[in-house]
């Protein structure tokens, strides 16, 4: 009813006005002018409609560049409604653009890769993580088929077979990924990739740790069990043999105890439930204790150079003593008799620095980056002779991390090794 009033009533009023005007003209000047007035009036009315229709067509072609006229009569309401619709549409587009921007920002911050494809697998959009995972480039690869960009036989089979109920595990670009395709709308698909490289590495480290720990414990247990069986089967062993057996069993028991202690220490160092409790460490007393321990291990076989010029330190006494002792004991174990060992505690521009330098057997450069791994051994036979647990440098690394120190290793085969812990300036007590 409102549309009828808005559009038809003004048109009828204009036609009535034209008719009344024509009647007046015909009354005054005759029927010819009556007909002429009606024709002219209708032509004007039709011309106005055609004019506004033309202006409307121009606006419809380029609504962003053309302005709607004010209009006359019913056209005023038409143009007003179109203008309101246009403003509402612009508002909706702005909101949609903002939501799209937020969506893309959220997708960009996701730890997983997200790739949006059409129904024939052409790339429409992907986030930066997907670019890293799959080697895509949004500016270069948009509009290209994803199966032509990700060259993986497993991925191709997964796409072709279309069995998307289960995710796919693939190795691509030195990464291990879980890929999953999700149907989205009728003509869209989403490919989600999750990088499990680090979790797989950690899981492998866990398995290796269990295997290595079991292997390290099996050897002393085998020795102890073997001697116990001999003792039970031959109770009349002579005192010399029995004493030798007991000595070996005691050594192997101490070895197992050291291994268990080191594993417990590592577990504590890695646990977030055991934060560092800083205390004032008297470094002079600690260094003197290290020298005494070194002399006890060396038994006078290695000339020692001792430098103590550094300040006291804020940190965990037990942890730092364990780390320093491991470095000193390694220097003694892997330096032949007569080789020089230097223990120094100095204050540098970068902060306090603890260093152990030896002229021992040295380590090849290919081994340096793995030295702090649990149970990693450069020479297994040599490590057996020195009775190491294989966990000392792993402990040193974690103590350094907990004290914000940097562990550096410099070594040359048959020349010697230098292990240094560089502490931050704020750790020093001056």
- Listing every helix as H and every strand as E from the N terminus to the C terminus, the arrangement reads HHHEEHHHHEEEHHEHEEHEEHHHEEE
Tally the helices: 14
Overall structural class, as computed from helix and strand content, comes to alpha+beta
Using the CA coordinates, give the radius of gyration.
43 Å
Distance between the terminal alpha carbons, to the nearest Å? Answer: 92 Å
Q: Give the oligomeric state.
A: single chain
* Main β sheet profile: 5 strands, antiparallel
Strand element count: 13
CATH homologous superfamily caption of the largest domain: Histidine kinase-like ATPase, C-terminal domain
Strand content: 15-25%
The global form is elongated
Binned, the helix content reads 55-70%
CATH topology of the largest domain: Heat Shock Protein 90
Query: Any low-confidence stretches, pLDDT <50, length ≥5?
Result: none
Strand arrangement, major sheet:
2-1-5-4-3
Name of the CATH first level of the largest domain: Alpha Beta
Q: Kindly state the mean pLDDT as a whole number?
A: 82
The CATH architecture of the largest domain can be named as 2-Layer Sandwich
Number of domains: 4
């Amino acid at each position: 009813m409102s549309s009828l009033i808005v559009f038809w009533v003004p048109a009828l009023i204009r036609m009535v006005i034209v008719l009344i005007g024509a009647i007046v003209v015909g009354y005054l000047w005759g029927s010819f002018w009556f007909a002429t007035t009606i024709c002219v009036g209708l032509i004007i009315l039709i011309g106005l409609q055609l004019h506004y229709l033309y202006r409307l067509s121009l606006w419809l072609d380029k609504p962003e560049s053309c302005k709607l006229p004010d209009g006359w009569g019913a056209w005023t309401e038409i143009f007003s409604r179109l203008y309101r619709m246009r403003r509402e549409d612009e508002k909706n587009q702005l909101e949609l653009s903002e939501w799209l921007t937020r969506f893309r920002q959220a997708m960009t911050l996701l730890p997983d890769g997200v790739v949006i494809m059409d129904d024939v697998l052409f790339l429409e959009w992907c986030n930066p993580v997907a670019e890293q995972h799959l080697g895509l480039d949004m500016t270069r690869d948009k509009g290209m088929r994803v199966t032509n960009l990700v060259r993986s036989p497993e991925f191709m089979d997964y796409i072709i077979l279309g069995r998307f109920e289960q995710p796919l595990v693939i190795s691509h670009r030195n990464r291990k990924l879980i890929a999953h395709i999700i149907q989205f709308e009728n003509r869209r698909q989403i490919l989600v990739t999750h990088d499990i490289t680090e979790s797989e590495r950690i899981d492998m480290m866990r398995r290796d740790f269990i295997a290595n720990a079991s292997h390290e414990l099996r050897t002393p247990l085998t020795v102890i069990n073997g001697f116990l069986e001999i003792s039970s089967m031959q109770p009349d062993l002579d005192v010399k043999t029995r004493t030798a057996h007991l000595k070996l069993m005691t050594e192997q028991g101490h070895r197992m105890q050291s291994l268990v202690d080191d594993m417990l220490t590592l577990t504590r160092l890695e646990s977030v439930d055991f934060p560092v409790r800083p205390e004032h460490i008297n470094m002079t007393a600690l260094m003197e204790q290290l020298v005494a321990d070194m002399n006890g291990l060396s038994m006078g076989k290695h000339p020692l150079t001792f430098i103590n010029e550094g300040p006291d330190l804020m940190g965990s006494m037990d942890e730092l003593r364990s780390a320093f002792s491991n470095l000193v004991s390694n220097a003694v174990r892997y330096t032949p008799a007569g080789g020089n060992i230097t223990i120094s505690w100095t204050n540098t521009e970068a902060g306090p620095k603890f260093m152990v330098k030896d002229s021992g057997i040295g380590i090849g450069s290919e081994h340096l980056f793995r030295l702090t791994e649990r149970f990693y051994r450069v020479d297994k036979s040599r490590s057996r002779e020195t009775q190491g647990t294989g966990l000392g440098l792993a402990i040193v690394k974690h103590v350094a991390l907990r004290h914000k120190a940097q562990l550096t290793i410099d070594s040359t085969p048959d020349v010697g090794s230098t292990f240094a812990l560089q502490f931050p300036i704020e750790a020093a007590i001056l």
